[in-house]
Amino acid sequence: MSRLLRANIFVAAILALVRMDAASGAERLAPYGANLSETSVSGLSSGAAMALQFHVAHSGVVKGAGIIAGVPYDCAERSLGRATTNCMKPDAAHPAPDPAHLKDISDSLARAGDIDDVANLNDARVWLFSGRKDETVFPVVMDAARDYYAFYVPPDGIVYRNDIGAGHALVTEDYGDKDCAATKSPYIVDCDFDSAKALFEQIYGPLNPASAQPAGKYVEFDQKEFLPDGNAYKHSLSDVGYAYIPHVCAMETCRVHVALHGCKQQAAEIGDAFYKHGGYNRWADTNHIIVVYPQTISRLGLGFPFYTLNFVWNPNACWDWWGYDSVDYHTKKGPQIAAIRAMVDRLATKP
Q1: Are 347 and 31 in contact (CB under 8 A)?
Q2: What's the Rg (C-alpha) of the chain?
Q3: Cα dist from 188 to 145, 163, 167, 178, whole Å
Q4: Contact at 8 Å (CB) between 351 and 30?
Q5: Of the listed 74, 116, 134, 190, which one is catalytic?
Q6: How far apart are the first and last CA of the chain?
Q7: Other CB atoms closer than 10 Å to residue 59's CB: what's the count?
Q8: Is 168 a catalytic residue?
């Protein structure tokens, strides 16, 4: 057995023990009878790519999406090379994604039943954001995401903000790096602009004023049960996810918003910065919105037990938008998409 393989097995074993300890305090995500048809989703970077994939795959129940520094649907087409060039930093040799081509892919998948009927997108509400100083996902890629949506969504259903000098990060009103143009951990920047408010307004319409401080409860829940095979680690997901539950949702009908972190932005990397300070919860508190924060993990190759030969190369804990986990990553059959949908369905189940 090679030294590298032995080291990989040792690291995997240690990570497995850490995961078992981390999951020990997680509870079962409870049902709240949420309104499934009022579901929405948003994300940053790879989380934005997954948010758009989830929106298109489940457009029958997803009311709208907030896409921050993301890419159009199936931009990578199962190619890591395309993902890191055409879909992030296009140049003369690697042109920006073609929205018309990606529309053709979407239409074909819809006809096959792999995603919901794309006609559902006619009623969608979409909020898009690209920072002018983003050198990780070039603004031209977000232009392509806008143009992709424009094939389906009427003009008044799309808002695109690309006029703020932000880096590759989640933009907030008053939390994060004071340099709005920063692109560094925790990838949250204070630009005096409330992106959570803006995307919620676009999706749900006028909002009640936000609470000064979120008064609901944070839930640490078990993600394993939502995977088709019960194995979160196999799919580069954490055993533990987080949710914010406003107190009113125990008594009245709420809706669900899924907020997806970006690469290197999972809780294991940045703590509670995203799921407590990204700006969502104080608006959720006063507007009947449960916010779910699913979590990925970093994977460095062979899984555990090593004899399963489960190899996933996802060192930055990105969401699967190029096929590292499954060839079905962008459809309803994709394990990560299926897990997120199962979380939403649980919250929509009557208690």
Answers
A1: yes
A2: 19
A3: 22, 17, 9, 9
A4: yes
A5: 134
A6: 52
A7: 23
A8: yes
Q: Catalytic residue among 40, 42, 45, 46, which?
A: 45
The domains of the chain are located at: 3-348
Higher pLDDT, 309 or 219: 219
Q: Note the pLDDT tens digit of each residue in 82-125.
A: 999 999 999 999 999 999 999 999 999 999 999 999 999 999 99
Listed in order, strand segments (DSSP E) in 223-346 are 240-245, 255-260, 289-293, 299-302, 311-314
pLDDT tens string 270-323? 999 999 999 999 999 999 999 999 999 999 877 665 555 677 889 999 999 999
d(CA 234, CA 227): 10
Q: Is 45 a catalytic residue?
A: yes
Catalytic residue among 59, 130, 143, 168: 168
Joined together, the tokens standing for residue 47 give 């989380």
pTM passes above 0.85: yes
Q: Is 328 one of the catalytic residues?
A: no
- Euclidean distance between CA atoms 117 and 128, whole angstroms: 22
The dihedrals phi and psi of 243, each to the nearest 5 degrees, come to: -145, 150
